[in-house]
Design a protein that fits this description.
This protein is of the alpha/beta class. It has a single domain (13-244), classed as Aldolase class I (TIM Barrel), CATH 3.20.20.70. It is built from 11 helices and 8 strands. Strands 1-2-3-4-5-6-7-8 form an 8-stranded parallel β-barrel, surrounded by 7 helices. It binds pyridoxine-5'-phosphate.
Length: 250
């Protein structure tokens, strides 16, 4: 089976910093610690309202990180300029509404095809690996393929937020979506809302190559420290992968 990478999202270290407006806790320090704890990449979302990650954080992460940076960004001219300036390894295009508490759904790659096409092309031309954060729906994979995005990230929020039969239904959609997207030649990632309790069934899906996880890890770090929370998540991912006959090498 394919290797499974862990991208650690450090947005909420910046949320805590910004609650007081000072310099700590420093999300760049968290990123470096995540690297030591086994993260394969760092994810940061520069939101339009700069509620957590700042422009300066992105500049410092771009300069100081040794592992790849995945910039989550809205499909706006402002964010395209930031991406082209810093040239992160990857950019994940997400929908963004100022009033939402977190990214509430996937981007409508199908409905917004013509608006997204030049953005995906400009980022791709700058050698930034573009991914589209989508719901596990066939038309969204088809749209990502036709836009020329090499990667899609499947939104796992509905799977994480539900229970019982409803959760199983969302898990099935993620599984089937991952298989369909991979059959189109797309690289499949997943994320949003994942915790120790929800990660294993997602990590066991063989087509998924990367998980991006943030809020739970930063919250758990309050109790056990960031390094331990990341190591534990990594272990659960590896166990899920191994129980499906894979090696845990990345
Ligand atoms: N992937 C994407 C595209 C996201 O927007 C987010 C949230 O910023 C995550 C993953 C991580 O979600 P969480 O913080 O709930 O783990």
């Amino acid at each position: 089976m394919n290797a499974l990478r862990l991208g650690v999202n450090i947005d909420h270290v910046a949320t805590i910093r910004n609650a007081r407006g000072g310099a700590f806790p420093d999300p760049v320090r968290a990123a470096k610690l995540a690297e030591q704890a086994g993260a394969d990449g760092i994810t940061a979302h520069l939101r339009e309202d700069r509620r957590h990650i700042s422009d300066e954080d992105i500049a410092r992460l771009s300069r100081e990180l040794k592992i790849p940076l995945n910039l989550e960004m809205a499909a706006t001219e402002e964010m395209v300029s930031v991406a082209l300036k810093h040239k992160p390894h990857a950019a994940c295009i997400v929908p963004e509404r100022r009033e939402e508490r977190t990214t509430e759904g996937g981007i409508d790659a199908h409905g917004q095809h013509n608006r997204l096409a030049p953005i995906v092309a400009r980022l791709g031309k700058a050698n930034i690996r573009v991914s589209l954060f989508i719901e596990a729906k066939k038309e969204q994979f088809d749209a990502a393929k036709s836009l020329g995005a090499p990667v899609v990230e499947i939104h796992t929020g509905a799977y994480c937020d539900t229970r019982g039969a409803e959760r199983e239904k969302h898990l099935k959609a993620v599984r089937e979506g991952a298989a369909y997207g991979a059959s189109l030649g797309l690289e499949i990632h997943a994320g949003h809302g994942l915790s120790y309790d929800t990660v294993k069934p997602i990590a066991a899906i063989p087509e998924i190559r990367e998980l991006n996880i943030g809020h739970f890890l930063v919250g758990e770090a309050i109790f056990v420290g960031l390094e331990r929370s990341i190591r534990q998540m990594r272990q659960l991912m590896d166990e899920a992968r191994a129980s499906h006959g894979s090696a845990s090498t990345r």
